[in-house]
Amino acid sequence: MTPVANSFFTGGGLIDIGLEQAGIDVQQSFEMDAVCCSTLRRNFPGKDVVEADITRMLAKRVKPAHVSVFTYPCTKYSPISDIHGTRTGDELYLHALRMMALRPTDAYVIENVPGMRKFPVVMEAMTELSGYFVHVFCPVGAQLWLPQRRDRLIIIGTRRAFAFRPPENTRPVSLAEIIEAEPDVEIPEYVYRRLRGQYRDRPIISDAEAGDIAPTCVAHYAKDVSTRLVRDRKYPEGVRPYSVREYGRLQGVPDTYHFCGTSQQQYRQIGNGIAVPVGRWAGQELQRYFNHVRGKSESAGARV
User: Fold this and answer.
1) For 231-261, how does the pLDDT look when each residue is reduced to its tens digit (9 = 90+)?
2) pLDDT one-digit tens code per residue, 148-162
3) Taking all residues of the chain, what is their mean pLDDT, rounded to a whole number?
4) pLDDT in tens, 89-125
5) Strand duo 239-241 + 204-206: pairing
6) Could you tell me which residues come within 8 angstroms of residue 69 by beta carbon, excluding any fewer than 6 positions away?
């Protein structure tokens, strides 16, 4: 049996890449952004990509599946939103809850920033659903696999008890391995203004030769590439922004994956996504779970 999943708030599809790498069949993806939907259709031909606002969508559009995956936006849960007074949480979790109630599945996965734990009502809704055994993993760090500091909260709920394993230490890809020799990048003038100290903060500069890793990939990079720079002595001042391809590699995206839209839209899709190896780990653990359940069922059938 190949587990079948539906993904909600899919964005540019990074979670789907990881799940598919683990052998999970993602049959439906729900996303409201038209450019993201174009990216999904281009890279997953045959997938049912539903371009819709989940807050207005009826659950009857959702096909039966084994797994529901929710990666709803994290901007209002993140500590950085304290700066702008927008760390208020949001109500999208209620629509995730609505889908789980009206289209229940054998398992569900929720991904968000660790800051979501500061919202007890949200955590209660996501971790105390009747009929599910729930595991909370936090932080799950992308740096286990990738040269990027990125911690996430992962919640896995299943109908049967199961010993899910946390991700293991692996040899992560180094920053030097993701850097392109001839990157396609433009350096806006404001990059040099930030380097000269004309902004309230300096850029975070990572040096691959020194063994550095990059800071968290953020969607805001689409608007301001001066906040995160990489050392490259071929360029003025010896630094430059990350190319779109490098930014994707920092998230574990294969080079064969094509993001639609402008470079700004591509950066945003990448920054908003879940690191691909995190999705792959969750998918592999779900595979173990469904194999365990199948084995139990076959043993019970043999005894009848």
Assistant:
1) 999 999 999 999 999 999 999 999 999 999 9
2) 999 999 999 999 999
3) 93
4) 578 889 999 999 999 999 999 999 998 898 899 999 9
5) unpaired
6) 5, 6, 7, 8, 15, 19, 26, 108, 109, 110, 111
Q: Which residue has the tokens 């990157």?
A: 183
Residue whose tokens read 């997938």: 47
Q: Give the domains, in start order, of the chain with CATH numbers.
A: 4-162+274-303 (3.40.50.150), 175-268 (no CATH)
First to last CA, the chain: 22
